[in-house]
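[step 3/7] fold_predict: job queued, chain A
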Amino acid sequence: MNSNRAPIPVFIPLFIGIIAISFSSIFVKWSSSPVSIQAMYRLVITFLIMLPFAGKYVPVIKSLKRTDLLLLLLSGAMLALHFLLWMGSLKWTSVASSTIILALQPVFVMMGAYFWFKEKTSLAAIGGMAIAFLGVFLLIGSSGLSGSKGHLTGDIMSLLGTAAVAVHMLLGQLLLRRLPSFLYSWLVFAAAASVLAVYNVGMNIPMTGYSGREWGIFALLAVVPTVFGHLLFNWLMKYATASTVSMSVLGEPVGASVLAFLLLNESMSSLQAAGGALVLLGLVLFLKVGKRKKQPVDIQPEALG
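[step 4/7] structure written:
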């Protein structure tokens, strides 16, 4: 676990980040643009917002090795794939279904961290995770995941997108041992945006001609879930373990479902509400008791939505 002490209590930026990423699915649902365009401009605008603060990192950029550049490109490609699949899933299934499946992210991260970094997890932390996932299963049972072919397509896309972001997060660990989190985020966002641009060109998807409303949604995607979500979680990587950050995104299905009910008229059953309460209970228990055993490599991934 990182020995650095955060300047403010960790739960404060965690809470802000969870609320911010919960808005991501709402903005995607509001947009009529192709998801590859939404994702690309989300990253491009974020890259430009960060640009004025990147100058001091020029010496570090010049010192990057070829291996670092390849890892950055691969991490960015996995981030681009995550956005294509997860954002695409929202066109087929409900916000609750898609974000619930995305909440399985810690399982993929824990599996990868165990085999790749030999990271161990305490029994108390596993208990908190078990309670949280019981809540996830209740949510799944109440959201009609098996209702239609369209729902099934969206669910599979969300699951594959979750696997992609787990790979992205674990790859980022190798780079964060040598790079500042700001520079890592900035370069990975640039790599992911480039991959998406190539995808759009290859698929003949127009990159211009979108309405002012659509550009407003692109900007919201950049500022709210990316800056106040992704970047905030990246900053937290210096002060919290991977599983703490990953488990925190279990709050996204709850936040997103509530927002979808309020803003998209997507209903939430009593069983869904009970599942959400269990997710939050498991999250609280995990954050309280889920301290890591000593491990050779610190896992500090970013959380995505």
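[step 5/7] annotate
The two ends are 24 Å apart (CA to CA).
The longest helix spans residues 149-176.
exit 0
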